[in-house]
Write a structure and sequence with these properties.
GO terms for molecular function: transmembrane transporter activity. With 391 residues, this protein is an all-alpha fold. It has 15 helices and no strands. It folds into two domains: 191 residues, Growth Hormone, Chain: A; 181 residues, MFS general substrate transporter like domains (Growth Hormone, Chain: A, Up-down Bundle), CATH 1.20.1250.20.
Length: 391
């Protein structure tokens, strides 16, 4: 096949997965930001429990992720991503028809399985399974698409709530997964051959990690735990933290809106580099930018916009590094399985982070919450630097 045809084929796969990721993230992780208030107001269910559905979903995704990675290693990502579309659709149907809170939370159990099969880590593993050691540019481009999830889905969710109510919005997302996500996966994501017994890839996967690789695995898991916790804490509590420092609500929302463009801009810069540097550079720079941004916020300096641009840029390329660093450290043969294992601790941290942040705000105030965020970000800089020893 001609190189330009190969390039067009790869672009079609990445573009399809990009739309899949926008809808997967927008209809799960970013859903409560818009729908939680209308749901609580309409049903009378406690807001904490309505928002807590996301934590339940993340915990389910965490415990499913190792098996998801193994399934992608054996069968490729296409069937797993197709299952994700079906699970997300089914979960949204349950949400939309839920007569009471227990059924609503059961819907999040189903959505959690869909998240475990369809968010970044399975998509990265799919690209690793398809393209092997050459998957890095594809992973980088995919995160550029994913950066638009909240930009697309927050206004879409608000429009749907206004037009058809929160239940109609959930059912609409179910329909989108069936008529958009599922056909894109089945039509444009090629099947990857399962690893056959006796192949080098199978033998490589059966080998235990060396002592150095185990150290790298644990360090990377620590990065994902702290990185996931920081990202979720900022996503959930940023507006409250800014208001606690005297920033008006409208200004706080405007400042928060800087994060998305900063993420995308940083990913474009990373793409422009075309993989000329080791992914550990991406990870190290990401952690430094996040720590600098949070340090400015914690110090209370009048540079909120600069702080959030730095944070957003760091968080943007961190999403790339979490996919490319394991590929570089452990190789393509073991990539899908190890990505699945690495996803678990990070997802657990994301599930627990909102409650941790709420406790810090309740018992220590905004200063304690800012200090907690900076301490985790600074520790992550140390973990990123330590990873260079297992390069």
């Amino acid at each position: 096949m001609r190189p330009d045809a190969v390039g067009r084929g790869r672009l079609a796969v990445i573009s399809a997965l990009g739309v899949v990721e926008i809808l997967a993230w927008g209809s799960s992780f970013y859903l409560p930001a818009v729908l939680a208030g209308p749901i609580a107001a309409d049903t009378g269910w406690p807001l904490a429990w309505v928002v807590g559905g996301l934590s339940i979903g993340l915990l389910v995704a965490a415990f499913a992720s190792p098996r998801v990675g193994l399934a992608i290693h054996r069968h490729g990502g296409r069937p797993v991503l197709a299952l994700a579309a079906l699970l997300l659709a089914a979960g949204h149907v349950v949400l939309g028809l839920a007569p009471n809170l227990p059924v609503f939370l059961a819907g999040w159990l189903v959505i959690g399985l869909g998240m475990g099969c369809g968010l970044y880590d399975p998509a990265f593993a799919t690209l690793g399974r398809l393209y092997g050691a050459e998957a890095r540019p594809a992973i980088t481009t995919l995160t550029l698409w994913g950066g638009f999830a909240s930009t697309v889905c927050w206004p879409l969710s608000a429009l749907l709530v206004e037009q058809v109510g929160w239940r109609g919005a959930c059912l609409a997302y179910a329909g989108l997964h069936l008529v958009v996500t599922l056909p894109l996966v089945l039509g444009l994501v090629p099947p990857a051959p399962a690893a056959e017994p006796g192949t080098a890839g199978t033998h490589r996967m059966a080998e235990p990690l060396t002592a150095r690789e185990r150290r790298g695995f644990l360090l990377m898991a620590g990065v994902l735990v702290l990185g996931g916790a920081v990202m979720t804490l900022v996503s959930v509590h940023l507006i409250a933290l800014l208001q606690a420092r005297g920033v008006a609500l409208a200004a706080a929302v405007s400042y928060g809106a800087l994060i998305g463009p900063a993420q995308v801009a940083a990913r474009v810069v990373e793409m422009a580099a075309k993989g000329r540097h080791h992914p550990l550079w991406t990870l190290t720079v990401a952690m430094i930018l996040v720590a600098l941004g949070l340090a400015l916020l914690a110090a209370g300096l009048p540079a909120v916009g600069v702080a959030l641009v730095l944070y957003g840029a760091g968080n943007g390329i961190y999403s790339i590094a979490r996919g490319t660093v394991p590929l570089a450290l452990f190789g393509p043969a073991r990539y899908p399985v190890l990505v699945g294992r690495l996803a678990r601790p990070g997802l657990v941290a994301q599930a627990l982070a909102p409650s941790l942040g709420a406790m810090a705000l309740t018992y220590g105030g905004a200063d304690a919450a800012y200090a907690l965020l900076f301490a985790m970000a600074a520790a992550n800089v140390g973990l990123a630097v330590a990873l260079w020893s297992v390069r």
